[in-house]
Amino acid sequence: MTCQCRLYYDVQVQVHNMTCKCRCYCVDVHGKLIDGYSHGVSETDDRITCQCARDKSAYFKLGIIGRLFHCTEHGDYENVQCHGSVCYCADRKTGKQIDGTGIHISAKSKLDC
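^ Thyroglobulin type-1 domain-containing protein, sequence as received from the core. Prediction below:
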C-alpha cells in the first residue's frame, strides 16, 4: 500500500465530543512517514502512488544534490518535470518522460501536458 492511514482526533467544541478522522500519509519502503505528503481518505484512490515522495526521499538520503523532484501535495509526480536543462511532460505515476516532449528549460511554460 502506498500510504498509511493514521487516526487523529478533532475536538469539536460545540458538541463537546471527539470525532475520529483519518488521513493517509506517504511512507518510504520501510514504512517510515515521509514528511509533507498527506491527503484525506476521501481522496484515496488508485491514482495516488506516493512514488515522487518516495523517490525524492531515497535520493536525498544518498546525500546527492542536483536533481529536482516536482511532487504534488499527495506525493505523486507533477505532470512537468525537469532534469538538467531539459523539461518534459512526465507520467504522473513514474515521473518518466513522455516520448517527444523534452524541451529546453527556458521554454518550460510552453509545455502543454
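Residues 1-18 have pLDDT under 50 and may be disordered.
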